[in-house]
């Protein structure tokens, strides 16, 4: 099993930047597909970005060109660089992990991001 701890959330003005981190422990991080999801008040959880164990990357259309996902396997950490943020990016951001070939998914506790206009 893997434990995930997100950090880096906070209050940021529209147009600003923020970097989220997700530290993983417990298993071989480099074998994991990693992703970021978010949940705004009153809405369901939605996909934001993902990076597979082999380095393939996908983004939601709403963040494409503004957010960048990256990972440092030596530090067991995945990042989400959020640039040109908008008020609609306000949400709790969750880290997600899935070991390559496994049906199991793991979630962090979430970190709040609030974008003021």
Could you explain the architecture of this structure?
With about 120 residues, this protein is mostly beta strands. It is built from no helices and 11 strands. Strands 2, 4, 5, 6, 9, 10 and 11 form a 7-stranded mixed beta sheet that branches. It has a 4-stranded antiparallel beta sheet with strand order 1-3-8-7, with no helix packed on it. The relative contact order is 0.32.
Short note summarizing the structure:
With 117 residues, this protein is mostly beta strands. The protein contains no helices and eleven strands. The mean pLDDT is 96.
What amount of the residues lies in strands?
A: over 45%
Overall pLDDT metric: 96
Report the uncertain regions. none
Assembly type of the chains comes to single chain
* Overall geometric form: globular
Task: Output the radius of gyration.
Answer: 13 Å
**E-strand count:** 11
Largest sheet: 7 strands, mixed
List the helices and strands in order: EEEEEEEEEEE
Task: Give the proportion of residues in helices.
Answer: under 10%
Structural class: mainly beta
Q: Helical segment tally?
A: 0
Report how far the terminal alpha carbons are from each other: 40 Å
List strands and helices in order, with pairings.
Layout: E1 3-7, E2 10-13, E3 18-25, E4 32-39, E5 45-51, E6 57-59, E7 67-72, E8 77-82, E9 91-99, E10 105-107, E11 111-116
Parallel strand pairs: 2-11
Antiparallel strand pairs: 1-3, 3-8, 4-5, 4-9, 5-6, 7-8, 9-10, 9-11
């Amino acid at each position: 099993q893997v434990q995930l701890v997100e950090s880096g959330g906070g209050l940021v003005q529209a147009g600003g930047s923020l970097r989220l981190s997700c530290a993983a422990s417990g298993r071989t991080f480099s074998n994991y597909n990693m992703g970021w999801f978010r949940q705004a008040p009153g809405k369901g959880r939605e996909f934001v970005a993902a990076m597979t164990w082999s380095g393939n990357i996908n983004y939601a259309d709403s963040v494409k060109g503004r957010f960048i996902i990256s990972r440092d396997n030596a530090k067991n950490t995945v990042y989400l660089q959020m640039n040109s943020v908008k008020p609609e990016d306000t949400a709790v951001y969750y880290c997600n992990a899935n070991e390559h070939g496994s049906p199991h998914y793991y979630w962090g506790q979430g970190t709040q991001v609030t974008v003021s206009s």
